[in-house]
Amino acid sequence: QVQLVESGGGLVQAGGSLRLSCVASGIIYSLDDMGWYRQAPGKERELAATITRGGITNYADSVKGRFTISRDNAKNTVSLQMNSLKPEDTAVYYCNARVRTWSGGAFDDWGQGTLVTVST
Predict the structure, then answer these.
(1) Contact 118, 87 (CB under 8 A)
(2) Whole-angstrom Cα distance, residue 63 to residue 67?
(3) I need a surface site. Which of 10, 61, 64, 116 has the fewest CB within 10 A?
């Protein structure tokens, strides 16, 4: 069984910064793409940023230039540095990982989510 556990959410004023972290634990052969998705109240879950195992990143237009995603393959972690936060960044942020198993299979796993609230 694999678990993704996020940390680092909280309340911050507009213009401030937060850093989210996610660690994957369990029986893991390797992790392919990892990412952060977010869901604002009353809206659908959307991509914020993703990163491949080799470090290629992809960002939603709304966060480009403000958010930076990174990962540590040895520690099975992915982080999201969020700067210049805006009230519209308020959402529950979910960690995602494509997990490869020792048996040769693969599946997508999600964390439980961490709330980020940006006040005006």
Answers:
(1) yes
(2) 6
(3) 61
DSSP bridge pairs for 72: 77
Residue-wise pLDDT tens digits, 74-90: 999 999 999 999 999 99
Angstrom CA distances, 106 to 3, 39, 51, 60, stand at: 14, 25, 17, 25
Report how far apart, in Å, the C-alpha atoms of 105 and of each of 27, 55, 65, 73, 96 are.
12, 22, 35, 19, 17
The end-to-end CA distance of the chain, in Å, is 41
48-57 residue pLDDT tens: 999 999 999 9
Is residue 51 within 8 A of residue 57, CB to CB? The reply is yes
| Angstrom distances, CA of residue 39 to CA of 29, 77, 100, 113 | 29, 21, 26, 9
- How far apart are the C-alpha atoms of 39 and 48, rounded to whole Å? 10
Query: One-letter amino acid identity for 120?
Result: T
Residue 1, CA atoms < 13 Å, CB-side half-sphere:
2
